[in-house]
Predict the 3D structure of the following.
Amino acid sequence: MKIVVLAIILCALPTLLAAQWVKYPTPGIPRTAEGKPNLAAPAPRTADGKPDLSGLWQRTSLKYERNIAADLKPGEIQPWAEALVKQRAENLQKDHMSVQCLPWGPSYSNSARKVKVVQTPALILMLDEDLTYRQIFTDGRALEADPNPSWMGYSVGRWEGDSLVVDSVGFNDRTWLDRDGHPHTEALRMTERYRRLDFGHMEIEITLNDPQVYAHPWTVALRAELTADTELLEYVCNESHTSLEHWVGKASDEKETEVRVATEILAKYAGVYEELDFWGNRPHPAIIEITFSDGALFAELKGREKVRLVAQSEVTFSGFYGLGIRFVTDAQGAVTHLLERRVSRDYRFRRTR
């Protein structure tokens, strides 16, 4: 009997390990008649009447993840900082924190990553899947006047009506503000406003002030959506940190190997493609729109800026935010889907129109 029981446990173990609560129904949340999470229900409140921001949230605005300075005008960034952004782009952003397995610092707030919020009366925790945590003290303490610089800085929060206002200082200068590589100094001060509109939607405003780099403070607006019936899964970067072995060359190399492709071939790739193989922290399914204009092919990942693709062959292209794209056709030559080419593997997007 013991052998039978052991066999049953061993057979069940892979299923339990694979599940990891990724489809576990979130208890105590409002649901529709069909049993789905009712994201339009009223926002919950804590016992003291404050909005409860607790939950697993997916940031859905991708514009500022790539370029936090997208709304700034020429001349509003120090020349040395603009040169540094160009240098980082030419180097394929290989020094980004995600590649170097380092905390993202202030750019977690405008990233496309999930965040788990745990709210108590005196402390709010923000947890990231890379095991980084952020503490926001709401117990009335003031920010340190001369903080020792750290990766995640120091944060205090207060309530203004239904909005949580978070002030943060004390970041070290080893992190970037976005994927493009906009820098900051230790003088950076960040102010965030979080407002839960209803049960499943949140508005976020981020104001950045670093007078040593930028001409004036500026504010960006984002949104987040509650991710219910799942859990935050850990991701340890150093567990399989081999991507740099394949990350070679410079961004300008693709121009040297660009080939000419007939316009009638380029034109047939235009369309909308929907993600089939979910990857990363971005909202799913991701959507890529391919357009053809003035003899060139352009791609736009929904929520981000449009970029020009650089042909490396009739079906493969570079220039997709540092990644590649390969178009796939059927036996009749019709384009059926594209592959988003990453170091890890190719990810499929099916053509929807």
User: Anything to note?
Assistant: The domain at 55-237 is CATH 2.40.128.20 (Lipocalin).
